Amino acid sequence: MPLLKIDDVHLSFGGVKAINGVSTDVAEGGIHAIIGPNGAGKTSVFNCISCVYRPQRGSVYFEDRKITGMKPYQIARLGIARTFQNIALFHHMTVLDNLMLGRHLFLKRGVFFGGIYLGPARKEEIENRKIVEDIVDFLEIENIRKKPVGTLPYGLRKRVELARALSLRPKLLLLDEPMAGMNLEEKEDMARFILDINEEWGVTILLIEHDLGVVMDISHQVSVLDFGVKISEGDPAQVAKDPHVIRAYIGEEDDFLRNLEAH
Fold this sequence. Notes:
The protein has 263 residues and is of the alpha/beta class. The protein is built from 11 helices and 10 strands. Helix content is 40%, strand content 22%.
């Protein structure tokens, strides 16, 4: 069974069909990319998976369990974490505090024990801090761990958001344009971290990304959306040669292939 199954999902906003009968399987242990032009419905698919939106038709299954209609916090408890296209961090808080917030689902002690910070509450804090510090080391952000997020450059904030998603210790990680707005060096770092998360930690990754070169380099499977419809799916080499994909992106095959070869 796939780790995640999207089955005939339809989502409309008034007369606008954001998703029109999309189905796909995400294999456990892989990196699966969703690509498509702006407005293709990619983020809407993510919002259906994380239950921000509820589709009018169709269902989403995680580990063979139907999750459509659940609350977002329930989805997080199951082991699904995500980052956002627009960074969603607490900018006045430090990097460590943002990551500790990502562990809040695992904090079992109440306000009383937390307030006096003795016994079980202290032990729980130390255990969760150790997990957070491991993530800090893994993503190489030790030197900014105590800095307010709002003082950091954009590329580092994107890395902190990835760290906060990892603090949930997810089985499935949803990355919504993790490299948007980054320079070449920052993209290379982020691609390396994504590969390491997948290979060393065994986290399945579902990725939305506009940089086709990166997608073709790191993905095992690619799904292509256009106007809410899945127009192609397969391994990167198959998708890159699909005429439907080429027309949706560029309109001219030679220009499309040159764009990929440049990366």
